[in-house]
Amino acid sequence: MKFPQPHSLKEIASLLDCKFIGPDDFEILGINEIHVVEPGDIVFVDHPKYYDKALNSDATIVLINKEVVCPKGKALLISDDPFRDFNKLTKHFKPFQSSNIAIAKDAIIGKDTIIQPNCFIGNNVSIGDNCTIHSNVSIYDDTIIGNNVTIHAGTIIGASAFYYKNRPEGYDQLVSGGRVIIKNNVDIGALCTVDRGVSGDTTIGEGCKLDNHIQIGHDTVLGTKCLIAAHTAIAGCVVVEDNVTLWGQVGVKSGITIKEGTTIYAQSGLGQTTEEGKTYFGSPAQEARQQFKQMAYINKIPEILKKLKNI
Predict the structure, then answer these.
(1) Were both Cys, which of 68, 110, 151, 266 would link to 247 (CB 3.0–4.6 Å)?
(2) Is the pTM for the entire model greater than 0.85?
(3) 110 with 163, same domain?
(4) Known catalytic residue at 218
């Protein structure tokens, strides 16, 4: 998430009421999570296990809960609670805007696009040409939708990320300030949910087709021409490359990559990055031919035991 304009290290430290290490005028351009940071971004880290990853990332400002040696060319913001302060920045630069009308006044609706009754179109939403948005669809703030997109009834685009920190008093949610981007020629079925990015974008690539009852988690990126069947759930921060097929009731773990041309058979649970062009099945999912061989061997066990008993 980029700020509307650059800010200095001193300005951000003052906003957070925290100590900083680096030049007062060190330029800050935005905030982002570790997997999408760029030079000029703030990244937060609050566990020693991830200090090195954050300090050596592309981020040039690290919001951290311990005073450490600052890498050359970077700056530090020293906070007693980086999670809290990252939320403070999101709320400051991307505050929630309430609405009391069905279609926000600043929403952009393209030529020949149809919006059916009882839809909600939030602030700063852009919808392209020749789209059809069926009844009872909710499209949250800042969503960008391309041309020739169909979204069926009851689908929700842009809800908050499922991202929490476990505190003694309960779970504390990381505030979502990102967007959803849906590219051209996408079809999304009924009662689907596509969560917005925490600080970046959740993206549905051109030509993707989503069945009914599908969950796409925060910051997940779908490539082009992906086919996803009903009841599939993809966790956050997953990269789905081009021409991937996920059949019904597939579950996908966060932070992995589904390589180009992968097929995942129904009711599989995928917990690792796949190989390009391979087919997977099972839970945990394995290469399908290997899985089917194992199942065949298992089915032979009663026959083998019977023969052993007769020896």
Answers:
(1) 266
(2) yes
(3) yes
(4) yes
63: Cβ contacts below 8 Å, ≥ 6 apart? 16, 42, 43, 44, 45, 76, 77, 79, 82, 85, 86
> 136 near 153, Cβ under 8 Å?
yes
CA-based angle 60:66:72, to the nearest 5? 30
Virtual torsion, Cα 114, 117, 122, 127, nearest 10 deg: -10
Q: Are residues 147 and 88 part of one domain?
A: no
Measured from the Cβ of residue 13, the count of other Cβ atoms closer than 10 Å reads 22
Q: Looking at this protein, which amino acid is placed at residue 74? A: K
Give residue-wise pLDDT tens across range 235-277.
Answer: 999 999 999 999 999 999 999 999 999 999 999 999 999 999 9
User: Looking at 197, 219, 241, which one is the last position of a domain?
Assistant: 219
> Peptide bond preceding 284: is omega within 30 degrees of 0, i.e. cis?
yes
Catalytic choice (92, 213, 218, 231): 218
> Do 233 and 153 share a domain, yes or no?
no
* Segments in the chain forming alpha helices (H): 9-16, 51-55, 82-93, 288-299, 301-309
Residues 249 and 150 in one domain: no
